[in-house]
Write a structure and sequence with these properties.
The structure is a single chain. By secondary structure, this protein is mostly beta strands. The protein folds into two domains: about 100 residues, no CATH class; about 170 residues, Neuraminidase (6 Propeller). The chain is built from two helices and 22 strands. The strands form six sheets. It has a four-stranded antiparallel beta sheet with strand order 1-2-3-4, with no helix packed on it. A four-stranded antiparallel beta sheet has the order 5-6-7-8, with no helix packed on it. A hairpin with a 5-residue loop joins strand 18 and strand 19. The longest helix has 29 residues. The protein is globular, with a radius of gyration of 22 Å.
């Protein structure tokens, strides 16, 4: 059984779309299945702690299970497959520690992509069934979440920037994209930038966990904010369905996860936090006034 500290350390980004009418996502407790036509959801795989998910061309879903063995005081994991008929099986047995040998970032041929440190440089590595290739090298800081698009461009976050590897060429496509807003500003830099995804035009979207917003990077490299969230929720990942609507995965600080549909027309250019800023400013002025009154009362009593 997982401890609360592990369970709520940070949310996962596991969210996949089968291209028809089914979504799967993780809340670190179960893997959920959502019908995009009706909005109905159900538990697809119970009692599974996975941060990532990936689906192959045949509709098979893959993830891990990560848990703590109290008797051994060690963490363990295994890799599983869930087929379209609902059959669940382990495809790699139990191992100690974190998963290091199965990437959940895969292209349409199910070749995997990963980033490995090699001295002062990091290697961007692609693996197919028989070979391993170094696509590019770069002096990075701490690369985190990764994504492979339909055109086989490989994206990843390296706080506070976003990189793309395409045709074996690496480029920084967004600088200083990270943002910070309370209450999610308490997260570390490593968890500031979350899921990356693309739309049908290969425009790039980035969930800014610490900033409670989604930013878009268009094909000209222009960055704009297209969505902001309420005070108690923040985006962690997203995917577009066949209708062009966004399904946004959001988290709370307590680890609760939800998935909601955002119609295409509701994605605005540069939505702001203006009303929230006004309310917070008014709250700050009021609090400052109360403190001032308290200080004056204490001074009068002490005269």
């Amino acid at each position: 059984m997982l401890s609360g500290a592990l369970l709520y350390a940070h949310p996962g980004i596991g969210l996949v779309y089968d291209g028809d009418h089914t979504l799967y996502y993780t809340d670190l407790v179960h893997v959920w299945k959502v019908n995009t036509k009706t909005g109905e959801k159900e538990i697809a795989i119970p009692d599974i702690h996975t941060h990532e998910l990936v689906m192959d061309s045949e509709g098979n879903l893959y993830g891990e299970h990560y848990w703590y063995v109290e008797s051994e005081q060690k963490f363990k994991n295994y890799i599983w497959k869930f087929d379209p008929q609902g059959n669940f099986e382990k495809i790699r047995g139990d191992q100690y520690g974190e998963n290091q040998d199965f990437s959940f970032v895969r292209d349409r041929n199910f070749s995997s992509y990963d980033i490995q440190q090699n001295g002062k440089l990091f290697n961007i590595v692609k693996r197919d069934t028989t070979h391993s290739f170094i696509l590019s090298r770069a002096p990075l800081k701490h690369p985190t979440w990764k994504y492979i698009s339909a055109d086989q461009s490989f994206f990843f976050a390296d706080f506070p920037d976003i990189y793309r590897v395409k045709n074996n060429q690496i480029a920084k496509i967004a600088r200083n994209i990270a943002s910070s807003r309370i209450p999610f500003s308490i997260q570390s830099d490593q968890h500031s930038i979350y899921g990356i995804w693309t739309d049908a035009q290969n425009q790039v979207y980035v969930a800014l966990y610490s900033g409670r917003m989604v930013k878009k990077i268009d094909d000209q490299g222009m960055v704009s904010t297209v969505l902001t969230t309420g005070f108690f929720w923040t985006p962690v990942n997203g995917v577009f369905d066949n209708q062009g609507d966004l399904w946004l995965m959001e988290a709370q600080l307590n680890g609760r996860i939800r998935l909601r549909k955002v119609p295409q027309e509701d994605l605005d250019d540069n939505p702001s936090f203006l009303l929230e800023n006004i309310l917070l400013a008014a709250l700050g002025v009021g609090l400052f006034g109360l403190i001032g009154m308290r200080i004056r009362k204490v001074r009068r009593r002490n005269k």
